[in-house]
Amino acid sequence: MSLFVRTLVRKRDGAELTEGEIAEFVRGVTDGTIPDEQAAAFLMAVCCRGMTTAETASLTFAMMRSGETWDLSRHGFVADKHSTGGVGDKATLVLAPLLAAVGVKAGMMSGRGLGHTGGTLDKLEAIPGFRTALPRGDFDRLLETVGCALVGQTDSVAPADRRLYALRDVTGTVESIPLITASILSKKLATGASAVVFDVKTGNGAFMAETGDARTLGRALVETARAAGRKASGWITAMDRPLGEAVGNANEVEESIRLLGGEGPADLRETVLLLGADLVVAAGLEKGEKSARTRLNAALADGRALDVFARLIRGQGGDSSVCDDPRRLPRPVGRRTVAAAEGGVVTAAATREIGLLAIELGCGRRNKHDVIDPASGFRIHRKPGDVVAKGEPLVTVELGPTAKPNATFEARLHACFTVSPAGTPVSALPLAVERL
Amino acid sequence: MSLFVRTLVRKRDGAELTEGEIAEFVRGVTDGTIPDEQAAAFLMAVCCRGMTTAETASLTFAMMRSGETWDLSRHGFVADKHSTGGVGDKATLVLAPLLAAVGVKAGMMSGRGLGHTGGTLDKLEAIPGFRTALPRGDFDRLLETVGCALVGQTDSVAPADRRLYALRDVTGTVESIPLITASILSKKLATGASAVVFDVKTGNGAFMAETGDARTLGRALVETARAAGRKASGWITAMDRPLGEAVGNANEVEESIRLLGGEGPADLRETVLLLGADLVVAAGLEKGEKSARTRLNAALADGRALDVFARLIRGQGGDSSVCDDPRRLPRPVGRRTVAAAEGGVVTAAATREIGLLAIELGCGRRNKHDVIDPASGFRIHRKPGDVVAKGEPLVTVELGPTAKPNATFEARLHACFTVSPAGTPVSALPLAVERL
């Protein structure tokens, strides 16, 4: 019996694995000496038996060490942020330049859309010319000169995660808190941030729909990041409705620009302030949340945050004139309004389905080779708790040049909004559900 | 998400799978459309979550239908037997000709040695010329003319089992009662026996060392075989010491010939009678166990059983003169006696280790390409409960022409026997632990 089969048997039988056993697994996954069938059996055993905090930390650190690790110490304090993903979540686009504007360096490594959720990289690439695949040298230069950078994961960072992620996708082992924790954190820790703030979504548009699961994941993320010597904090926030009004790519950039210029939807602003204040305090620039929020609000109000965003866009090869004139972003070629069939109060939004319909419209990829239509998307006019009269718009569909919604599309989108008689109690989540 | 990933997620989360989901899995394993990593994840999920009786039956039947199924109805009643494997277990060699001698057709499909246990096919092949790979036509002819046949599994029977078994071996998913049940029974059911008796071993030389596990497996085997419309019964028997005196290949054939001629060790005879009586009753030849044993004993005493064995050997291409003169079997070229260092009572035999030492001596294969030395083996002189004087033999090592035991071999074999001061209580299992 090979040593690794012993490890598989031990995990199968519920034993706590040693750091050495877990390191052997990650080494074998990285160098290919552990074949897919053994790695798959390991992942399923972890799903079924779970992992202790110590095992999760061992897995995270071993995956982090499977590739290049970045030393950002010459930049001093560098902040990062992670969201577990949602619909309309463009907080990173605002947060990175806003933090830089108030003196907190923000070096953020972001992802693509996954499942029904959008991806920061896909949104940024709606800006003409914007490049998210930057050499390490450009990342350092941007941190020095602009104070922030928004880049994609490179192949050299946490290669074990790429192989494991591809396997998890086909083996029914995606939904595992230790595996999710290690996947997220191995990349965050490898890219060297001093502090990370986690935005763990909950509700019907989140991967962790139940608040209890979100709490378990959030605590694992915060504890494991701290065990790695990083500052870490986080919030569970509501994803039982889209965040902000825009869902898509170009329209989410436009909404981010509005917020950076001091306008934009209140829920998006509140999310950015919640997460940003934690990082301003972690950086030691303010003592408390209240003064941190004041500092952040000032940079939104006086144009500094938007100015940093323009410089960030130029630094990453993009056309920064979109900041002055968002109409230079890809624009829809048609619009259709989905209106309420009856008046009343919106009691629920099927957020996951809204996200899936957005993907269907071209806002994301169903297959690896799909091409995104950045001009497509939705404008959400009503959310749970809002009153709507019969015939008033619930959502506008923005049609990019390649969008081809089928005959049932609008009916399916309409069905995502539950309109109940006026006075029906609405049980929407508070935006900030709880601090982790 | 592919349909099969949904099945993986359902099993992972503890759901009971439908017959259709399980059939889809077996189909995909057989035709190769389910890749190794998905099959491995399924196997691990089954290990962790278990299977209900209905799921186990669905898996068994689907695996049975993955290849050729034999219709033996033209032979009338045909008996089969399955042992979960042990050290010195040559019961099949005696049982098949004995049953034929009393009028019960016995068509038995046997296996090779596995882990620390010996294999019926390997033992039979110690007989010069004996062939275990027989075309289906020869199998039928032997059942007609001799009344019994002892053959190996062909590639066309239960091909899904072969692929799954190879995967289980490398993914730490061997020890699962539903998977073991389906593996054993899919083959037994495919080869069309009317009745099967199960000999489930327990004790330190069994795969199911704990009696509770042996009982769970045994009941699953009996219930699932009955669900397939076959007669089925079984016993849990002791494997906390080798069965009989000979452990090896040629020496086990010689011991079988002695028993077929009315001699041989009492524990081997008792095991054969226990299993044989069930099949004589199942065949309807006798009403009760007592008269069935009388019938079997008579055929051992008067030479009929040995005569059938000689005809079976000839029918399968072997040299049947070994029945008259067992010295024509491959013979050891040297012997070494391992004697007791102190007098007292043998309180335990490390049966699994004895089996592993036999493999090391050449009685079995550690790797697929190893060649067996049929003349090598052990003669066990003392078992738990036996008194031994200082210097008296515990076991004799029989060295075949290629046996090359290393310097520590005898010391390690000696250490397999625990000799305690006379009067120490011995807690050996009864030979027949319980009826299933």
Q: Mean pLDDT of chain A, rounded to whole units?
A: 95
The helix count of chain A comes to 16
Question: What separation lies between the terminal Cα atoms of chain A?
Answer: 43 Å
**Outline type of chain A:** globular
Biggest interface, residues from each chain: A-B, 28 and 28 residues
The Rg value of chain A, from CA coordinates, equals 22 Å
SS content category of chain A: alpha/beta
Estimate what percentage of residues of chain A fall within beta strands.
Answer: 15-25%
Unreliable stretches of chain A: none
Q: What level of helicity do the residues of chain A show?
A: 40-55%
Question: What is the tally of beta strands of chain A?
Answer: 13
Strand order of the largest sheet of chain A: 3-2-1-4-5-13
Quaternary status: homodimer
Please give the largest β-sheet of chain A.
Answer: 6 strands, mixed
**H/E series of chain A:** HHHHEHEHHEHHEHEEHHHHEEHEEEHEE
